Every structure is written in C-alpha cells, then in structure tokens.
Amino acid sequence: MATLRDIIRASERLAPHLPRTPLESAPQLGDRIWLKLENANRTHSFKIRGALNAILSLSDEERAQGIIAASSGNHAGAVAYAAQLTGAKATILMPSTTPGKKIERVKQYGAQAVIFGDNYDEAETEALRRAREGGTWLSPYNDPRVIAGAGTISLEILKQLPKVQRVVAPVSGGGLIAGVAAALKQVDPAIEVIGVNAESAPAMYNVFHDEQRPQVWDTLADALSGEIEAGSITLPICQDYLDDMVLVSEEEIAAAMRFLLETQGWVVEGGGAVAVAAQMHDALPGNGKPTALVVSGGNLDAELLRRVLC
C-alpha cells in the first residue's frame, strides 16, 4: 500500500527535478472538465514520476547493480532518463511492436534498448529472467515507490482544483490509477476515481468486473497493453479504492486523439487519451461533477498520427 505519507515524501523527493504539470480547462467536453496534462511532463509521460521516485529511493548498492526494466514505451523512457540523472546504468527490454520514437528516446538518454518478443508480456518475462541473474528490477507498476510517484499527480490536482469531485485516469498494470486513487481517497473518500481501459487492453477491467476479455495487441493504446503480474500490489489497491472501471473502443480513442490535437492543441498517444475518450463518449456514469481527466502521455510516432488524422 502506498500511504499518503509515502506519496507526500515522493512529492518532496521529485520537486527539485519535476515542475508541476498543467491543469487545463476543456470547455468543449463540459464546463466542469479539466485536463491534467502529463504529456507535458519530462519524457512526455506521467511515468517519470514513478521511475524517478523509485530510482532516487534505491541504495547505492542497488543502483550499482544496474536497472533492468521492461516497457512498450513510456516506462522505458522514464527509466532511461532517471538512470541518466542518477548516474545508473539501465537495460530496458522492449517488444518489437514498440514505436520507433520510444526506442530512440531510450538510446538518447544513454540506456540500452533490447528489442525482445512480440508483445509486452514476452519482454517482461525475459527482463525478469535477466534481473534474477543480476540487476535491480524496476516494474512499471508493481512497486510501491512507483505507485507513490504516480500519486503525486493527485496532490497537484488537489492544489490546482480544490473543488474536484472526480478524477479519471488511464489504466494498464494499475500503477497510475493505484497511486492517484490512494492519494485521493486518503485525503477525501468522497472523491470519485474511475479507471479507463482500452477494449484492446482490458486487464484491470477484467479483474474489476470478473470478465475474461482478450488482449488485442494491434491497438492505438499500445502503452496500455499487457496482463497484470500475478500478485501485483496494484490489484488490492484498485479493488479497495476504485469506484468503477470502464472501456473505450479504438474508434473512440482515435476521436479523442483528434480532439486533443485539433481543439486543445496537444499531441497525445492513444493510451494517454482514453480518459478523454470516456468523457467524450458517455462511458462515465453520471455527469456534472468537477472532473479532472488525466492525459497520461504524448509520445506518438508521426506515421501513426497521420493515420489517426486521416
């Protein structure tokens, strides 16, 4: 469990390195709707919060062993940046479906990008095997330090929008939503927290609603793909704190990406746009509450962007 104290300490640890991300109104989505723009963060994703908090929390010995991670994109860039900032060596296993922009970013930060497997689950399995042979494993979600880092988003929202009554965020393994929900519910249990899965990446939706929807690896929301590690600490946090989990389709994700670019002026990747997609297409129960939609990432290949805009 990430306690409120853990999240506050993470905020203090990150403050010298990460400026607060913007909270921007989105009147075309409703007069009480705001976007929490994590695509404006370092490495253009919320992932830097958890990765940097975790790596700054390591002992010198753990850092010296080298960091090993697996990612289809944004966690990879965050780990690479955080490793560079702290002088650590990082090796990141990335599936062959990872967008080229995300692979190049890892290399630019000085980390080793190893392309392995056809999907995230295969890359993670190999990364865990390598970590057992020697290295410090850093999960993209199944780590209390990563969850606490993600929870700092909620502390910022509470300062930027004190009247907030609902926060909606994308979900993959659950590190983001677990941190967001843990912070909000420990401050004010009345604040509603809703997670959004892509229909193509329904792992947390399946857990929450006891369903067996399949993974579809060919998706605009590649950053959300993959099953949840057995025994992940995100599962009980989400089961305790989330008010609902909803799904959005590929067409709805594409529409949200177009809206964010054409109306709000932001380039947002598919996985980062699912909360906006849920708001646009009435996937959220009820309405009228002051709501913050977390836009979680903006690392998008130009070729994919052109396809979405056509």
Question: Describe it for me?
Answer:
By secondary structure, the protein is of the alpha/beta class. The chain has 13 helices and 10 strands. It is globular, with a radius of gyration of 18 Å.
Amino- and carboxy-terminal Cα gap:
44 Å
How much beta, percentage-wise? 5-15%
Q: DSSP helix count?
A: 13
> Level of helix content?
40-55%
Element string (H = helix, E = strand): HEEHHEHEHEHEHEHEHHEHHEH
Q: Based on helices, strands and strand pairing, what is the structural class?
A: alpha/beta
Largest beta sheet: strand ordering? 1-2-10-7-8-9
In this structure, how is the largest beta sheet organized? 6 strands, mixed
Q: Features of this protein?
A:
10 strands; 310 residues; four-stranded parallel sheet; alpha/beta; 45% helix; six-stranded mixed sheet; globular
Give a topology summary.
Layout: H1 4-14, E1 23-25, E2 33-37, H2 47-57, H3 60-64, E3 67-70, H4 74-86, E4 90-94, H5 100-108, E5 112-115, H6 120-133, E6 136-137, H7 144-160, E7 166-170, H8 175-187, E8 192-198, H9 203-209, H10 234-241, E9 244-248, H11 250-264, H12 274-280, E10 291-295, H13 302-309
Parallel strand pairs: 2-10, 3-4, 3-6, 4-5, 7-8, 7-10, 8-9
Antiparallel strand pairs: 1-2
